[in-house]
Amino acid sequence: MGVTDPAGPVMDRDEVDRALARLGAEHEAIETSLLALQDHAGRRLLEGAELTGVTKERWVATEASITLLWAYFDAYAGALRTAREIRARRRWSSREDLVELTELLRGESVTVADAATAGATANAPTLHAGPGRLSHRFSLASLVDRMNELYASGLDMVVAADAVWSALPARIDLLAAELQRTRRLAHSVGVRPGEHPAGDDLERITRTLTRLREEVVSDPLAFWVPTQGSSAPGGGRPDTTVYDREARALEEVRREIDAVLTVRQDAEQRLIKLRDVLSRADRTLAEARTARGEVLAKIAATEVPVVSGPPTALHEQLAAAAEYRRQAQWHRLSPLLDSLEQKAEDELLRARESLAAVTAPLAVRAELRGRLDAYKAKVARHGLAEDPLLVERYDAARRMLWSAPCDLRVAEQAVLRYQQAAGELLGTTRVPGRGTPEDGDGGGKS
After folding, report:
1. Whole-structure pTM over 0.70, yes or no?
2. In 2-132, which ranges are continuous DSSP H helix?
3. Coiled-coil ranges per the record (predicted)?
4. If you average pLDDT over residues 327-351, what whole number do you get?
5. Three-class DSSP category at 403
6. Is 425 helix (H, G, I), strand (E, B) or coil?
7. Do the Cβ atoms of 31 and 38 come closer than 8 Å?
8. Is the dihedral of CA 180, 182, 188, 193 positive or negative?
9. Mean pLDDT of 153-173
10. Torsions phi, psi of 300, nearest 5?
């Protein structure tokens, strides 16, 4: 839409002809715009929809504005037609004709009666120049400005509603279709409302999407975010906050159901592995209990930790997991298997640590026996095996290490005394090196 020239002195014929040509072009542009607005898909949808909320309020005002816009356009077209008729009276317009044309083209010569637009202006109070007016007078320029304002306002509302309707309902329908597929899949693996959190989430998403679609269809402007600082009609974007949130929630549910499906596929192998891990833990604990009895019988003056019994609770949970698999309760089996796998590994580690703690005294005794025999072999290589002191100290240490129960502290001291004696004798025979029995040192530590 265009804007006419401001008022000025009496126009000459050329100015009148140029103004009429410009106004004619404006008339065509305005008519084209109004017809396009009249045929706009968004406007047709607004006319046929059962609107609520802010959209209903704005559409009532917009319909009034569009009605008034056509009334203004008719008045504008009438003024243009009158001006053309005056100009067509004679080839060379008279002074009186030019004065009349100047007033018509530049002055407030267009009158719009309230009676013609009473219904429209009732819902558009900004269109009144003041209370008690029976008509309104406009210049062609101000009338074009007013039509521009009404057109921009009406187009903005229509384009915004159409943009929301074009974007959101289709996306909501696609998400709802995906939701239904997910619900069927969830039902097949036992994920149902009231029995699994994911089932409850699916019910909530279903209710939210149903309500969201109803609200979008009846009140699209409630889901429109205008662009800040933009004066162009329809400047903004659909608000997809609720849709995006529910789409993310559905994706999380899908991932959880995929995990349940994975459990269904490899549940048997995981159960077999769990049984194996717990069996190894049981055997290790049994070995630890046997070793503890041996240690208590063979080792004196030492603390031997108590060995716990088999993990009864884990075996009961394993039996429950097997029952869940038999009944195809995959949604319950999934978290139970995850928990059991970690607990079973922890139990096996605990059993191994228990066995190591129980058998530690036997390992110490074995290390002392090995050290004693290593030094005996060393002194024998140097021809000192028959030395009375070494023989005496070796026999004393050996009796302690090979008798039951063995006092490890006393036995370790006996081994150290044998090492010291061997080291002294090896030193007198100038055996080089000090350290392990292999390099000639008799001062090793227990």
Report:
1. no
2. 13-39, 41-48, 53-87, 95-106, 114-121
3. 250-284
4. 85
5. coil
6. helix
7. no
8. negative
9. 92
10. -110, 160
